[in-house]
Structure formats: structure tokens, C-alpha cells
Amino acid sequence: MGKSFAVIGDPIDHSLSPNIHSAAFRELNLDSSYIGYRIPKGELESGIEGLKKIKINGFNITIPHKIEMMKYLDKMDESCSIIGAVNTVLNNNGMLKGYNTDMDGFLEPLFKRNISIKNKNILLIGAGGAARAIVAGMAKEKAGNLDIANRTTLNAKNLAEFATKLGLKTNTKKIEEADKHIENYDIIINSTSIGLKNEESPISFEGANQKTIAYDIVYAPMNTDFIKKAKEKKLEVIYGYEMLLGQATRAFEIWHEMKAPYNAMKKALLGGF
């Protein structure tokens, strides 16, 4: 009996997940399928019922359902309850268990490069949904100091409170001031969607320390203005596709209880650009 998986959200046609997971199934000769399934806002409950009826084995959740989906879980893992959002579900005979693989997905490219976050000075740009998972990862890895730069001060304050609760030393600053004292940061992360439409980077990297790492979570285009400017200053960069890949391999491992074929998934993902 083959297994079936899906990604739910709206819009869904741009999702790269079906490609990434199908490549993994092919690589390991698994009798599984993975599709994009559009569930509009307000129709989540009936959508979930439908997925249960066809006995779906697992699914990913993207915008706009990551928070509302929490209501329909029977169980959740720790990262899911800390972050307050779910992006991966395992269906065990109608029992839905939720996970959030964004945190592991974010950390994975850092681990791959042997970059330690412990006691580091970090600048996080943005305070949206992805930022919460990143903050949780920072707390888990015991970052030293976290500055949050965001357009709306209220969102930055809320995220800072969340970070403080998790034990991080935190400050907030206006996005216009993100470049201030840039030489003090070990890692600079863009967690906003700035760059998706080729917008200019929120910071210039002028005066950045040569050892600073620039990490953009926007994965298309691959070379955002943020990444280009960081490269011009000869900084080490981490691409958004690496985080996407990190969370996809984690989801694969939750569903299949075996190691994900990283390189096959990476090839499929990069082939999608």
C-alpha cells in the first residue's frame, strides 16, 4: 500500500515541496506520492476532514494555516508548542501529531558549516512567523545577544518578549537603524520577505566585520540583493533554499523514520529555479 502526502495552503501552485519530496521517493524507491492541495482561508476544518478520509499519511502546512492548524491536532511536539505554529503533521490512524520543522530547518545549514551560535551576537531583521522559529532555535543553541530590527515596533516588541521568555538577551531597533554597530554582529539574518520581488536589501553591510555570516531565508530568487551585498563585502552567505531544504528533510524523516536523501532533494530543489 503506497503512502500519500501533501502540502496545504493558499496559494499552493508555487510550492516547491512536491518536487523535493517526489525526488526523495524516487531516490529511495518508496511507493509514496506528494501533492499540493489548495485549502482556502476559512475552509481548513473541512479540508482536514477530507484529508483524513483519504487516509493521508502526512502533510505540510504553509500560509495561511500554520497557526489555525494547531486547533485540529491531537498531539504536538515541543517545538510546535513553543513556536505556536505547525508546519508538519503526521497522521497515525486518524490521530494528528503536529511538528514545527522550521526551527531545525533554520539551524541545519549552520550545523552543516560547523557554525556555532553559542554566545554569538545576532541581528534578526523581521518579526513575522518565521522569526519565531528562528528565535526558538537561537534560544536552544544559547545565542549571546539578539537584536531584532523590524518596521513595526509592536511586532518587534512582541517577538522580543517571546525571546526573553526563552532566556535570550534581547534588544529591538528600527529597521532604518539596522546598519548601526553592524561590526558587532556575528550573524545577520533576514527573516522578512524583502527580496522576494527583488527589493533592495534592508541593510547595506557597510562596515560589517569580515567574519560576519549573512543568512537570508528568502529562497527565490536565490541571489537576493541582501545576499549580493553580503558577497560584495566578502562575507560568508547562507541561502534561503538551505533552510527550505533543512525543513523538508526533517519532515521526510518524521514521516518515513529514515534518513532523507539530502543531495537528491537539493538537486530537485535547485532544478526548480
Topology:
Elements: E1 3-9, H1 17-27, E2 32-38, H2 44-53, E3 58-61, E4 75-76, H3 78-83, E5 88-92, E6 95-99, H4 102-112, E7 121-125, H5 129-140, E8 145-150, H6 153-165, E9 169-174, E10 187-190, E11 213-216, H7 225-232, E12 236-238, H8 240-256, H9 262-271
Parallel strand pairs: 1-2, 1-3, 4-6, 7-8, 7-10, 8-9, 10-11, 11-12
Antiparallel strand pairs: 3-5, 5-6
Structural overview:
This protein is an alpha/beta fold. The chain has two domains: 3-100 and 245-271, Leucine Dehydrogenase, chain A, domain 1 (Rossmann fold, 3-Layer(aba) Sandwich); 104-238, Rossmann fold. 36% of the residues lie in helices and 21% in strands. The protein has helices at 17-27, 44-53, 78-83, 102-112, 129-140, 153-165, 225-232, 240-256, 262-271; strands spanning 3-9, 32-38, 58-61, 75-76, 88-92, 95-99, 121-125, 145-150, 169-174, 187-190, 213-216, 236-238. The strands form two sheets. Strands 2-1-3-5-6-4 form a six-stranded mixed β-sheet. It starts with a strand and ends with a helix. The mean pLDDT is 95.
Can you give keywords for this protein?
alpha/beta; six-stranded parallel beta sheet; Rossmann fold; 36% helix; globular; six-stranded mixed beta sheet; 273 residues; 9 helices
Can you count the beta strands? 12
The portion of residues assigned to helices is: 25-40%
Main sheet summary: 6 strands, mixed
Q: In percent, how much strand structure appears in the residues?
A: 15-25%
So, CATH architecture of the largest domain? 3-Layer(aba) Sandwich
Mean residue pLDDT: 95
* Helix-and-strand structural type: alpha/beta
As residue ranges, the low-confidence spans are none
CATH superfamily of the largest domain: NAD(P)-binding Rossmann-like Domain
**What is the distance, rounded to the nearest whole angstrom, between the alpha carbons of the first and last residues?**
33 Å
Please name the CATH topology of the largest domain: Rossmann fold
- Quick one: overall form? globular
